[in-house]
Amino acid sequence: MTVEQQRLLRTAIPGPASLALHERKQKAVSAGVSTGLPVYIERAAGGILVDVDGNQLIDFGAGIAVTSVGNSATRVVEAVQRQVADFTHTCFMVTPYAEYVEVCEQLAELTPGEHEKRSALFNSGAEAVENAIKVARHATGRDAVVAFDHAYHGRTNLTMALTAKSMPYKAGFGPFAGEVYRVPMAYPYRWPTGPESCADEAFATFTTQVHTQVGEENTAAVILEPIQGEGGFIVPAPGFVKRVADWCHEHGILFIADEIQTGFCRTGDWFASEHEGVVPDLITTAKGIAGGLPLAGLTGRAELMDAVHAGGLGGTYGGNPVACAAGLAAIETMKELDLAGRAREIEAIFRPRLEALAAKYDQVGDIRGRGAMLAIELVAGADDTTPNAALTAAVNRACHQEGLVTLTCGTFGNVIRFLPPLVAGDGLLSEGLDILDEAFGTATA
Ligand code: PLZ
Predict the structure, then answer these.
(1) Strand (E) or helix (H) holding 284
(2) Domain 75-337 CATH class label
(3) Residue 165 and residue 277: Cα distance in Å, rounded?
(4) What is the pLDDT of residues 38-72, one digit of tens each?
(5) Distance separating alpha carbons of residues 356 and 358, to the nearest angstrom
(6) What is the DSSP string of 426-445?
(7) In 33-68, which positions are buried (b, 16+ CB within 10 angstroms) versus exposed (e)?
(8) Cα gap 374→307, rounded to integer Å
């Protein structure tokens, strides 16, 4: 790796060079595009980000679950350099190329289910979700789409409609796309009657609401993140996802798994659906698929994906050759290093440390997630589950000041999430966890 895998603080965080850039940012970049940590990055590799002041930060965010194979992973860099020198763009819809086909072959091989599959490639997760809905409506001839509380599916108009949280994603940006309906998620920690009854009650509410408010015969698809990401790393109560998928199947409703954040080894399997024993009709992927290059996929049953008329799906850049080359290199890296296995190891390193934190601080209300997609939910105290966004922000800030990049999430802004690159070494991970522990001390002092 080109960057020593070591934390190094030379200045305060952010340092003077970052602050100067940030001033320019405020004058040049829309205020609507905000930054969680105004530290400007110059180089990065593996699990370390190097800023313009020469500070080296430990990365527990991976650019929101993107650089799973590490930042500037060797194979990805080489593949991109080769491809960019060969050709940068033709538009697959004009004159195609092998790399696009190869990524779709990999998606068919790696996504759940042995059935015949087809894929289409796009630039962003939101675009993949939009196209999943297009395909579902076209293939079923139905309009309605059902999404869950706490869902996040993107920022375009249709995906804003699917996303649950108003601030900051939707507020002031409506009106939103129609025929989108919302149902409760089986969120064990906050289920009113407790976690044991969560799956049964949430499933009953789901089927009743779809039946009475939407009508099964009008419903094209149900879309679900098998572990909800931006909404708070909510792991649905055991069995809930499978029951929803089976019920959809009984009613001719397509089950779409949005695996944009959970996919490509992040949760300890290639896809989180595998853990649930679910074979989605359609599956959306992005983020971790290409080691940092913009690439997204929609993969589904051949008869659904092929139901669309020729020319009905596409876009100028979708499946750009450079992004595809990166994707193929990232997938090869995941296979060769068994990064799904590594994600499970990361969970084994994190869990006891997070449990120790929960034992020490009553404000750690819940520890959840799977593989290298883990989080803690912070609350007021031992007997008070009121969301504690203030402490969440304070701990996050204290981590940042010590050179650990952490991210928050959650409908109530009270979840700290951990998404390290899957190649980050044990030493780096445990140093990051030490910093987290100290940050709790600082924030609660
Ligand atoms: N579906 C499950 O997690 C992206 C959003 C960051 P794009 N999540 C990070 C932000 O605040 O914009 C995401 C996701 C799931 C869809 C998306 C959308 O993917 O590549 O950001 O469009």
Answers:
(1) strand 282-285
(2) alpha beta
(3) 28
(4) 999 999 999 999 999 999 999 999 999 999 999 99
(5) 5
(6) HHHHHHHHHHHHHHHHHHH-
(7) eeeebbbbbeebbbbbbbbbbebbbbbbbbbbbbbb
(8) 38
Ligand 1 site, residue 152, Cβ cutoff 6 A: yes
Q: Which atom of ligand 1 is nearest to the CA of 286?
A: 20
Write the class of the CATH domain 16-72+338-444.
alpha beta
**Tokens found for residue 431:** 């140093």
**Residue listed under structure tokens 């998928």:** 245
The pairing of beta strand 254-258 with beta strand 219-224: parallel
Taking the C-alpha atoms of residue 375 and residue 405, their distance in angstroms, rounded to an integer, is: 14
87-100 pLDDT, tens digit each: 999 999 999 999 99
Residue type, 52: V
Instruction: Give the pLDDT band (50/70/90) at residue 1.
Output: low
CA distance 58 to 432: 7
Cα(347) to ligand 1 centroid in Å equals: 23
Q: Is 367 in the pocket of ligand 1 (CB under 6 A)?
A: no
Beta carbons within 8 Å of 434's beta carbon, 6+ residues apart:
none
**Whats the size of the chain, residue-wise?**
445
Strand partners, 49: 44, 57
- CA-closest residue to ligand 1 atom 16: 153
- CA 230–ligand 1 middle distance (angstroms): 8
Distance of CA 325 to the CA centre of its chain: 21
Residue 96: CB atoms within 10 Å: 13
Show the DSSP H helices in 32-71 as ranges: 62-65
Domain ranges of the chain: 16-72+338-444, 75-337
- DSSP letter for each residue of 366-384: EEEEETTEEEEEEEEETTE
In the structure encoding, which two tokens stand for residue 311, read together?
């020319």
Q: Which two three-digit tokens encode residue 142?
A: 């139905």
Residue written as tokens 């796309």? 177
